[in-house]
Structures are given as C-alpha cells and as structure tokens.
Amino acid sequence: MSDRNNSIRDLLLTLARQYGFGFEDEEDEINPRNDTTPCDPNHYLKLQQQIQKSEIAKNIYYKTNCYPGLKQPKIHQLLTQREKMNKRENKRRIQLNISQRFVPNSDFFTLDKLRHQIFCGKFSANGNFFVSACQDHKLRVYDCSQLFYNYKSNYSNRKISNLNSSEISTCWKQIKSLTAQQVGWSIIDIDISKDQQNVIYSTWSDNIGLFKLDQSSTDQIDCNLDCESGRTCFFSIKFSADGSKILAGSSDSKIYIFDLLSNRRILQLSAHNNDVNGVAFLDQSSTTFISASDDGLIKLWDLRQINPTNSPHQAIFSGHIEGVASLAAKGDGTYFISNSKDQTMKLWDLRKPTTANVTINNSPWDYRFDRHTPHYLGGNAVLIGDTSLMTYKDHKVLQTLIRCDFSPLETTGQRYAYTGSYDGQVIVYDLLNGQIVSKLSGHSKLVRDASWHPHLPLIVSSSWDARHGCWFYKPKNQ
C-alpha cells in the first residue's frame, strides 16, 4: 500500500511541477547528490580570471584586435586605419574588431509562421540557404542569398548596417518543400554539407534521409544504418568536412558512421551508458570526434585508433551533473561547448580531460516534465573533478534537446557562444567572461535551435510556437 501511495504522490508532484506549482519542502523530494559540492561564491570569478590567461583568450583577442582594459577606437577611426594599412592580416584584424561588435540586438520579428512545432533550422556554410525541419514532417529550404549581397554592397559604402525586418523578409524566399520519409513523431536533427550540396535529416528510424539542396531535385536517399536494437532515433547527425561520411549519435547508446561513397555503415560503436544526444567532428580532417550522452559524460574518439576488436575512447570530460543535450565544436581541433540538462553550457579544452574514473549519479528529476528544477542545478553546485574552462548559466534546457553553437568565425572571431532556451529566448554569451551579451526575446514557447548567419549580424530561431524568428544588429541611434 505504501508503494502505491508513494507512486500517486510522485505522480501528483510531477503534475504540479509541470504546471508551475512548487512546494516549500520539495527539495527534500530530490535525492541529495554526493558527487557535487556547493558552488563557492567566488567560483565563477576565478574561472573568469583563469580563462583570461588561456590560449583561447589570447587567440580571440589577437584575431579581433580587442584586448580587455584597453579603450577601443570608434568605428570610423578603425575604418580610416584599415584604409591606410598594407598587410592583409592587420586589415583583417581591424575588420573583425568592427564586425564582432555587431551582435544581434533588434526587436523580434517573425520570418515564417508554420502550423506545427519547429525542431531545427540552419544556415548553409556560405549563408545563401536556410534549411528548416518541422513536426509536420516537412523540410523547407529558403534562398536568402540576396540578403548578403545587399548588405555587402552597402557595407562597402561605409554604412554600418542597413539590415531591417522589411528587407530581410523580402530576401527570404522558400524554394523547396519536401516530405520526410519514415518519420516517427518528428524530424529530430539536420545537417548541411559544407559544399552546400546535400542535406541530411534524422527521426525515429534506422534510416537517415538525404536530399540535394538544389532547388530542382526532389529525390531522397535512405542511408540505412542497420541498427540492431529495434526502434532507434539518431538524436545528432553531422557531415564530415568533405561530405563523404555521416556521424550519428543514437538512442541505443551507440555511435554510427555511414559512408556515402560505398553506401554502407562502416562503424557501430558502443559508446555510452545512455542515449547519445550530441556528436561533432573536431576539425577539417574529420578523424577525431566527440560524443555526449545522458550519462553526463563527453568522450573523445580517434578513428585511427578504432578497430573491430578494440574501440577505446581517447579521453573523458566530466563537469555536467545531468545529461548532456547537445555539442558544438569550434573547428580548431581543441575547443568545444556543451549544453546540458543541468541548465548550464560549458566550454572545454581537449587538452584538459578528466583524469579520474567518473560516473555521474542519476537523479529522479526529469527535464522533460519537471519545470521546478532542483536547487543544485543552474550552476549552484560543481561536480567534483569538473575540468571545464567556463560555465554559462542563465538559460533553460527543458523538455527537449536544445542546441548551442559558437558565433561565426568570419564576423566575430568566434568570440561568443549562443543557445536557445525553454523560456522562448536566444541567449548570447561572451565566451571569455560568461556574461550575457544579448538576450533575444519574442517567442511564446521554447527555442530548440538557433542559427547565426556566417556573414551577417543576424540570428534566426526555430521555436515550438511554430515560428522562425529573427533578430539583427541595430545601431543604437536607429
């Protein structure tokens, strides 16, 4: 009888949390953690001080010609300096000093309104296309190439920014709509090859779908990964740099690699003790990659060290105290960020792995249903042995696997990290001090994905309120 009463009580607590009700003694309902310590009041200040001396800080400050503590010249002064310089590298640094200031900050406006929840949205590498995936099983391709052309023409005439909602909407044209094959519940993830030729998508299926980005083509190809564990979902998929391979993280705790040239699976790797929610290649060689899981761990793998009889990971990174929801690699082979159900995002250095054997203790709290987060989440506790460089902690990762990413190399020197949030916002953090640079609001439901244009100060969001939202950089005097 007591077990039945406890089950009913747990159900009532879950429903109460789901609809926003809490209880004063509710923290007692969550099992205490013995793998964490309360966060020291100066913990994050120490992280800020340490990262200022790191290699990543030195690289970003040098690339953007922007150093802490030094007064920055006004933009018109920098433009004059740039015209007088002969060395291409110095011109580039001044250009980045200017463009990294253009962080999207405008009012929200709707680019497209659909009828179902939008799960994914991503710009192509050159910014000419945007691909969207929705719970109506549709994949939509938008042509936005004219937008960059107009912006570049005005920038050459020394106009700081001519972006506005009317012009963006005019240049945003849907050119293709495809119905995904074998969809279970929704399309979960997408990726675009760097040569802008192919798009892949995943769902609750053994197959990963592929289609051409080209407007005239409507054909789809099924990439069968031949899973052995029954109903499977690939929560994260990535193209290799040359577009010849697909890396996939799965609900069966495994990692798969599919070779498009031979049209077959070439790797099945038992990687974690729970769902693999994030995967990413680390650099252009695509020989090393990382994976992240609901077991709370991030692992480093090297394809050159993997064989049929021995598949060891090269390193483990622990610091999150709940499952990891998504990953993004910086692309330099050294740094990456992770978004977690512990309500934080973290920055990591591959050269600083966790040295001890770590197992993250699972708590009964469920991020999908419980809106009342335990007191130790959100950066209020630190996992023993955390080796991350920085923690970002003012967004919410609830209900779904919310994505994160670095800001573009071309325009910001990857100075920022950004993420969607359960509260309908996109949050932009300064990578080197953890502070919020821009808080972009406007959605009525969670933002699962966001994409920063590679050449423009513009972010497009994908939300469960069925809208693609947009923000752009707006000078203060406009």
Give the SSE map:
Layout: H1 2-18, E1 36-38, H2 43-51, H3 55-64, H4 75-84, H5 88-99, E2 109-113, E3 118-123, E4 129-134, E5 138-143, H6 145-156, H7 165-170, E6 173-179, E7 189-192, E8 198-202, E9 207-212, E10 220-224, E11 234-239, E12 245-250, E13 254-259, E14 264-270, E15 276-281, E16 288-293, E17 298-302, E18 315-317, E19 324-329, E20 335-340, E21 345-349, E22 381-383, E23 390-392, E24 404-406, H8 409-412, E25 416-420, E26 426-430, E27 436-440, E28 447-452, E29 458-463, E30 467-472
Antiparallel strand pairs: 1-22, 2-30, 3-4, 4-5, 5-6, 7-8, 8-9, 9-10, 11-12, 12-13, 13-14, 15-16, 16-17, 17-18, 19-20, 20-21, 21-23, 24-25, 25-26, 26-27, 28-29, 29-30
Helix pairs in contact: 4-5
Give me the secondary-structure category: alpha+beta
Radius of gyration: 22 Å
Model regions low in confidence, pLDDT < 50 over at least 5 residues: 1-6, 20-32
Number of helices: 8
Strands side by side in the biggest sheet: 2-30-29-28
**pLDDT average, as an integer?**
88
Question: Main sheet?
Answer: 4 strands, antiparallel
What percent of residues are in strands?
25-35%
- Structural shape: globular
Ends distance: 67 Å
Number of strands: 30
* Share of helix, binned: 10-25%
Question: What report would you give on this structure?
Answer:
Helix 4 runs antiparallel to helix 5. The chain is built from eight helices and 30 strands. The protein has 478 residues and is of the alpha+beta class. The N terminus is likely disordered.
